[in-house]
Amino acid sequence: MEEQNYDPGALRHRLMLQQTVETSDGCGGLATTWQDVGFVWAAIQSIDPRTSIISQQTQETTRSQVVIRFRDDVASGWRFAMGDRSFEITTLHDPNEQRRYLICQVEEQGR
Q1: How distant, in Å, are the alpha carbons of 12, 13, 17, 79, 98 from that of 8?
Q2: Are 39 and 68 in contact (CB under 8 A)?
Q3: Phi and psi at residue 10, to the nearest 5°
Q4: How far is CA 43 from each of CA 15, 16, 80, 101, 102, rounded to the nearest angstrom?
Q5: Which CATH architecture has domain 11-109?
Q6: pLDDT tens digits for 83-111?
Q7: pLDDT at 37 over 70
Q8: Rounded to whole angstroms, what are the CA distances from 5 to 21, 26, 94?
Q9: What is the residue extent of each domain of the chain?
């Protein structure tokens, strides 16, 4: 989805942007939870669905590209949630440094 050919009307998926929050678990460790940051409109395009066998169990992972309007508060390690699906952000970039869109590479574990 190159920006010069990108149709802003394709931002038709409403996703919840979430960040990780670490809190004390009361036993000397940390518990990681997800905190909602806000809704964003996005375009989702599957890039590379994969099936692998780990410890004799099938695991499905889909790498996708999620395009949203530019925000400067998004970071890798965050995720997008849509219903029972979640997309972990692995990398993100501003395609032409004009602060119009963010292109996020994400991974979704099988559901």
Answers
A1: 9, 12, 19, 21, 15
A2: no
A3: -80, -5
A4: 10, 13, 12, 11, 11
A5: Beta Barrel (2.40)
A6: 999 999 999 999 989 999 999 999 997 65
A7: yes
A8: 36, 51, 15
A9: 11-109
